[in-house]
Amino acid sequence: MSFLSERTKNLGTENAFVVTQEVNDLQRKGRNIISFCIGQPDFDTPNYIKEGAIKAINEGKTGYTVSAGIPELRKAVAKYLSQTRRINISPDSVVIANGAKPFIGYAVLSVTDYGQKHEVLYPNPGFPIYSSQVAAQGAVPVPLNLLERNSYSFDISDLKRKLNKRSRLLILNSPHNPTGRVLNREELEQIAELVLNYDDLWVLSDEVYCKMIHDGEFCSIASIPGMQEKTIIVDGVSKTYAMTGWRIGFASNERLASFFSTWVTNTDSCAGHPNQYAALAALTGPQDMSQMMLRSYVERRNLVFKEMNKIKGVRCLSPAGAFYIWPNVSEACKLVGASDSEDFRKRLLYEAGVAVLSDVHFGTRISGEGEHIRISYATSKENIIEGARRIKEWIEKNK
Q: Any alpha helices (H) in the chain, and if so which ranges?
């Protein structure tokens, strides 16, 4: 058998897509499944955005673009980031890619060297591609544990202990997937104070849910004095404008932009040409549809929080942003005899027809933190009510 690299055999994945495939297989067999597993808006892309792409196609804008993206979109992104982060951002510091996700890999590739024991710190639980990309690129993943007993607030003392001369990248995600925690300015100032002590340390600030703030207000670490030049701001149009399949994301950092552009050249050549015009329409067109979607997530957050906390054996904190809730199901696991959250998740899918993700899909388990599942409330209120009813009845039936 031909050789297969260890990095490929051990490459992590995003289990939301794996579980979605399970759901699709069951649905093809006629099963009725309520799916809370994938972070995808249930709204259609607004028509004015589609028309932007159609116009571009009809005008023949279907070939390669420069790797950094079309100038019009880079200018619109720079304006959007400047307004929402309250800093001055130049179009030259902006790079467009096929989604925001590629910038995780580009950042690790740009600031660490393979096999040199350079360290990347990331939130745990957290988006699983952080740790998988770090390991795949030959750096050392260093988890920063977010604890339920601390309301998933950032542990500054833990960060201080783990920073050292090998630290090259700190990944922040606010609003946070999967807990919905939002970093406030005071926390960001404390993080910045530590980061500024390390000349070789960069910050990747994953801000793709920045418009989805339910409580408080959004603040970027790039707005803290001295941090803009050290921060890679990552955002995109997927969540805010219901454009997940259009695959348009963007990043900004003045020093790294040209290197990111070169990485785009090496991987995808450029983002999809007409899709870039769709993103341009999204950022420069009417915002009423997007604002309606964002308001709906607050209503759904309130509903799912209420319904989950009514279920025996389940407890959860109220997320301040994004569209995920992170229930503790430790007692529910005991009630139904599930060995852990993953066993609970599988039985919930096959026996109750409810699809969720378990905590093992978001990092390593933390001692003393119990068992958790993630529920995406980027779905209808009817699905939330029905899904909660099924979970409640399944636990009652099996305890």
A: 6-9, 15-28, 47-58, 71-85, 102-111, 129-136, 156-162, 185-195, 257-267, 273-284, 288-309, 330-336, 341-347, 381-398
Share of the chain above pLDDT 90, in %: 92
The DSSP result for 120-144, as a single string, is EEEEES--THHHHHHHHTT-EEEEE
Task: Kindly list the domain boundaries of the chain, sorted by start residue.
Answer: 6-44+289-398, 47-284
Asked if 6-44+289-398 and 47-284 have one fold, the answer is no
Instruction: Classify domain 6-44+289-398 at the CATH class level.
Output: alpha beta
What mean pLDDT is reported for the chain?
A: 96
Q: Pick from 340, 398, 379: which is nearest to 33 by CA?
A: 379
> How far is the C-alpha of 170 from the C-alpha of 232, rounded, in Å?
10
- In this structure, whether the domain defined by 47-284 belongs to CATH 3.40.640.10 is answered with yes
Cα 19-380-177 angle, rounded to 5 deg = 50
Helix, coil or strand: residue 241:
coil
- The confidence band for 17, taking pLDDT boundaries of 50, 70 and 90, is confident
Q: What is the pTM of this model?
A: 0.96
Please name every residue paired with 143 in a beta bridge, in sequence order, or none if there are none.
122
Q: Strand, coil or helix: what is 167?
A: strand
pLDDT value of position 16: 77
User: How far is residue 109's CA from residue 384's CA, in Å, rounded to a whole number?
Assistant: 40
User: 215 φ, ψ to 5°?
Assistant: -130, 140
**How far apart are the C-alpha atoms of 57 and 71, rounded to whole Å?**
17
Instruction: Tell me which amino acid residue 328 is.
Output: N
Mean pLDDT of the 285-298 span: 96
Phi, psi of 371, rounded to the nearest 5 degrees: -105, 140
Residues 390, 393: Cα–Cα separation, whole Å: 5
Structure tokens at 284: 């420069």
Strand order from edge to edge, sheet including 231-236: 94-97, 249-252, 231-236, 202-206, 167-173, 119-124, 140-145
